[in-house]
Design a protein that fits this description.
Lipocalin, globular, 8-stranded antiparallel barrel, 2 helices, 154 residues, mainly beta
């Protein structure tokens, strides 16, 4: 027999109680040590690439960035671009860029756009082994001759 003072339990009250119990149980589970970054988290190398770089040579002959002009390479988290302007006039000699992927130290860039001087590169893919050490970025071509060393622009 029901007590005249008892209130019936509603579905909402039951759901809130079960949710509270679930939160309590989950909070008691041991914390999982953070393992390797997931596929959606950028690696240290991916983060280190982001920025502006100035071409300063090849792996066998590294120099200093030019005082004026020079070739610049820009990286965001997914896009890249290269621009070179005449140091005396500022007129762009060439400009092209696109998207890239990075898996470990293997970097693949796809040319998506270009000015008339490098338009023949559009739709090409270029593979590299890459590394960033301090303010130096090195790319060694895989199946191409673009072996280059870049310094972070100041």
């Amino acid at each position: 027999m029901l007590n005249q003072y008892a209130k019936p339990v509603t579905l909402g009250v039951l759901m809130v109680s079960l949710l509270g119990l679930l939160v309590l149980l989950v909070s008691q589970l041991p914390a999982k040590d953070k393992e390797a970054p997931s596929a959606s988290e950028p690696s240290k190398l991916a983060k280190d690439l982001i920025g502006t770089w100035v071409l300063c040579g090849t792996p066998d002959k590294v120099g200093e960035p030019p005082a004026a002009g020079g070739r610049l390479k820009f990286f965001t988290g997914r896009h890249w671009a290269i621009t070179e302007a005449d140091p005396n006039t500022g007129v762009v000699i060439y400009h092209h860029g696109g998207t890239y992927t990075l898996k470990g130290d293997e970097y693949v860039e796809t040319v998506k756009y270009a000015n008339e001087n490098t338009a023949y590169l559009i739709k090409d893919d270029y593979k590299f082994k890459v590394k960033v050490e301090g303010d130096t970025y090195t790319q060694v071509g895989i199946g191409n001759t673009y072996n280059e060393v870049w310094k972070r622009a100041k």
